[in-house]
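Appendix B. One record, verbatim.
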Amino acid sequence: MSAHVKTISLTVNGTRVEASVPPRQHLGDFLRERELLTGTHLGCEHGVCGACTILIDGEPARSCITFAVACDGRSVTTVEGLDDDPVATELREAFSAEHGLQCGFCTPGMLVAARDVVLRRPDVDNPAIRTAMSGNLCRCTGYVGIVNAIRRVIDARNTNAG
């Protein structure tokens, strides 16, 4: 094996994957180019915009600044891996109903981050939603629809729980 590649083993959306990757290949590039999971969008490639947000061991992370080799032995979930996730399904419906998406470029990262807010912060108010989502940039919506969509899901889940 060349010194310029490392073999890694990780779980991507529930499927075990082994691959030889360059040590400095970013996870976002690995997911898009090798795994053909193009739902992970690459925007700024500096970890600022949030378009590339995925889950690593269940925690939101920026795939554009995470090296694939750092995920050896870990579990990675992309927006495609949330197809059957109930919270993600509720969010997709709410984003549509509340006009929380326009061009759609930021939407995959927004959904992953919003899911984390819904699961971790069931008591959050709208200013706190804005703060929690501030790491995900959107150039189209003005954020009102996004905040309303997250609020809608949190309120529905709280009503159904109580």
